[in-house]
Write a structure and sequence with these properties.
The structure holds two protein chains of two kinds.
Chain A lengths: L2 H9 L4 H22 L2 H18 L8 H20 L8 H13 L7 H16 L3 H11 L5 H8 L3 H21 L4
Chain B lengths: L2 H9 L3 H9 L4 H47 L7 H12 L2 H10 L3 H11 L6 H8 L2 E7 L2 E8 L2 E6 L6 E5 L4 H5 L12 E4 L6 E5 L5 E3 L2 E7 L4 E7 L4 E6 L7 E3 L2 E8 L10 E8 L2 E8 L3 H11 L2
Parallel strand pairs in B: 2-12
Antiparallel strand pairs in B: 1-2, 3-10, 4-6, 5-8, 6-7, 8-9, 9-14, 11-12, 12-13, 13-14
Helix pairs in contact in B: 3-4, 3-5, 3-6, 4-5, 6-7
The chains are: A mainly alpha, B alpha+beta.
Chain lengths: 184, 309
């Protein structure tokens, strides 16, 4: 079913919306949760919560791109779950590495307020618009989807070292960009 | 800002990029057209290379013949002899074809080798080599310089991977000479040109966990008020995006005592949007690749001179 029709079902408060969402985007959201959580039970819990939150978010919101909307909910829920479980110790999977990789770009320990986070997200989007397509895809696959280096290399049909090199350069550029914009 | 904040902010980026990353596929058509182009060039070379080799033989043979012929006429006939003598005789006696045949028949490897060597020979022999390959479109003199601009139809681009550096150093433009051990910034710039997009922290040099150098390939970008621009890529490591000439038999210029290979290419060569110049040379074990767009030949040569010691 087309995304527009699925969204219409949400707006009509028709529970078939969830069935169709599960059919179309169940695998997609499970992959995102799996990259972060590495635990089947936790993943399933996050997926169910995703459908529940999507149901509650509409009709107030009408997502522009349904897959990204659902993916973002799954990602946030999975990260929350990850933080709850791994607050005292290092976890498994890619997230640990991703936290380490991004530490230089973050540059401090002062928490950001909600408004600052929104501004930061907008600046990162602007930064991404200035990147070459391939570098942007690699960056988003790594830090949004939290894919492993191997998975990104396979998906883009490039070597792992090229993937790492692209990420390294993009992180250095992002850091410079955030410094220039006064966000670091 | 904490890492968590950054990760959360990345989670809130424009959904367009999220969708793009999910659906992105490498452009197949671009790959096919590139492959086709390469095949065309290769196919062309299959015919052209033997022809060029024959031409080299003919020119070298006849030149040798004429030289020996002149020598022959200025001295006693009996002084020339053997294989060289027959080539000389043929060259002096008549047609080029005959002289080539004679040279080939007589088995003159030195004549052929000489012709082939000329094509890639340094300064003094450049002009002859350039004419033989048919790739140099012009030569000019500038003091003690010999300038040969090769007209090239193909450029090579390679992106050489490296492992992720364990540590990096940042070098500001004015510090780069200290790092490379030689000046990497042009001494003088064409009017209206300036260095742009200087990284805030400086140019990056990467090292592995043992402190060994991994990557010091940097790109200095210059832009002019007239809309032209040029880049100076400097490296001692074979890493990153490297542009080079596809042909390996180009004429070599001599600038300030250094050998420089210069090429001019037309718009659309590789993926270029304008015509431009490419120059490659080595100075104190540092490899320089200079590429221009929208610049005149004299401006480009001035940049190359400014990069020599």
């Amino acid at each position: 079913m087309e995304d527009e029709k699925i969204i219409d079902l949400y707006w009509e408060r028709d529970q078939a919306a969830i069935t169709h969402t599960e059919q179309k985007y169940g695998g997609y959201c499970r992959r995102i949760a799996g990259n972060i959580l590495y635990d089947r039970e936790d993943c399933e819990e996050c997926i169910n919560d995703t459908w529940f939150r999507a149901w509650n978010s509409m009709p107030e919101e009408r997502p522009r791109i349904l897959c990204a909307f659902l993916g973002a909910i799954t990602r946030n829920l999975s990260l929350d779950c990850y933080r709850r479980k791994h607050s005292a110790k290092r976890g498994r999977g890619e997230v640990t590495y991703i936290f380490d990789e991004l530490r230089d770009c973050a540059g401090g320990e002062e928490p950001y307020h909600h408004v600052q986070q929104k501004e930061l997200a907008e600046e990162i989007s602007r930064f991404l618009s200035g990147l070459g397509e391939e570098h942007r895809v690699i960056f988003v696959r790594r830090y949004w989807y939290m894919d492993s280096i191997g998975d990104i290399a396979e998906r883009l049909k490039i070597s792992e070292s090229k993937t790492k090199s692209s990420l390294f350069r993009t992180r250095a550029k992002l850091r410079s960009y955030l410094l220039e914009e006064g966000l670091l | 800002m904490r890492v968590e904040d950054l990760i959360d902010a990345i989670g809130a980026i424009d959904p367009v990029w999220v969708e793009e990353a999910e659906n992105w596929k490498r452009a197949e058509t671009r790959h096919i057209s590139f492959k086709t182009m390469r095949e065309k060039v290769r196919a062309g070379r299959k015919v052209l290379l033997p022809l060029a080799a024959c031409l080299c033989l003919i020119v070298a043979g006849s030149a040798y013949g004429l030289f020996r012929g002149a020598d022959y006429f200025s001295k006693d006939k009996g002084m020339s002899g053997g294989a060289a003598g027959s080539a000389a005789d043929a060259g002096a006696d008549g047609g080029m074809e005959e002289s080539a045949d004679s040279a080939a028949d007589a088995g003159l490897p030195e004549a052929a080798a000489g012709g082939a060597a000329d094509a890639g020979a340094p300064v003094q022999e450049t002009d002859a080599g350039a004419e033989e390959t048919g790739e140099a479109v012009g030569t000019s003199e500038w003091g003690k310089e010999t300038i040969a601009i090769n007209e090239v139809e193909e450029l090579c681009s390679a992106n050489i991977d490296m492992e992720t550096p364990a540590s990096v150093e940042y070098w500001l433009p004015e510090e780069l000479a200290g790092y490379y051990g030689t000046d990497v910034l042009p001494e003088e710039l064409p009017e209206g040109y300036g260095l742009v997009r200087i990284p805030a922290e400086g140019y990056v040099v990467g090292y592995d966990k043992d402190g060994a150098l991994l990557d010091d390939h940097i790109l200095l970008e210059y832009e002019g008020e007239d809309g032209g621009f040029f880049t100076v890529s400097v490296r001692t490591t074979e890493t990153g995006a490297i542009t080079s000439f596809a042909a390996d038999d180009l004429a070599v210029s001599g600038i300030c005592g250094n050998e420089v290979t210069i090429g001019h290419y037309m718009e659309g060569t590789g993926e270029t949007l304008t015509d431009g110049y490419l120059a490659v040379f080595e100075k104190k074990n540092v490899i320089f690749t200079v590429q221009s767009h929208g610049m005149g030949e004299e401006q480009f040569l001035a940049v190359l001179r400014g990069l020599q010691d």
